[in-house]
Amino acid sequence: LQGKNRTSLTIGRQARKQIQRLLLETRAFSLLAGRVSSDGKREGGILSEHFSGMNASTSPASLSSLLSDAAQESLQQGSVSDAADLLALAGRYGALLSLLNRELANLLIVPPQQSKGGSSDVAAAGDAQTRQFWRDAALRFHSAHIANGRTHVLEVLEAEDNLALGSTFQLIMNLMVYFDRCHEGLWEEAWLLLDNLQLLPRSENEISRYVDTFHSFDSVVKQSFHNIVLGAMEALHNQHMMLKSVGGGIVPSNTSNNVPTAFAGTVEQRLFELRRRARVLVTFAGLIPMHSVDTKSRIAQMEAYMM
Q1: What keywords is this UniProt entry annotated with (predicted)?
Q2: Whole-model pTM?
């Protein structure tokens, strides 16, 4: 009897492996595993019908485990999008959000466009398509499962103690919009958006608190923080440069360019504020670890150009 039990267990494991192989080779996820309904629950699918009619060892929870294992195997094979689909079907929303956050954080920066054709253009186009693919997937997920109040997905995240992943997900989505604005040269809009996210200190008195806040961020945000800091300084520097150009580099006492003194004073006040924020940013950046070794020197150089 004990031998029979061991044989049955072995057959069960082999069956799981064969089902996982079938899933990954055919990619017939909807046919085999069903689909994720608007409320975030799995429905339909040949496997769901089979598993729900069996004993506890082949219950729907066991199917979720099988789909989760298939997702991990898919990741090992480099099929990240398939892994995301399988994790959603498995109802493993913490793991799915971790995957989405990692992919999106690696794609924050808009790929630069080249002026001439060549391999670099092809690579940039591929990066842009990849960025758009994951962004569209994230937007669909957010619209269906996060934006509409308390959903099944949020209940799962709460049960897993993974609600922080949802906050990180929404932060990264906002940062993608921020980098879009930078790429488009909309520096004031980009800066206002970033400032409202409250990732960076606004004064010297806030620096210590924001250093502590930085250390509380998810690792995917911290790994990309050098891009955020560099983008912030670029936004400040470009606003400063454009404002000086509009105002002719004036100060309140200089009205030789026929610029009203009141306007000159407003311009100079804004220039002063931009320089002040740049100085705070440089100080803050010096107190946090960043994954790019040249970020601190680059932002210090841009701040120097604003003096």
Answers
A1: Membrane, mRNA transport, Nuclear pore complex, Nucleus, Protein transport, Translocation, Transport
A2: 0.83
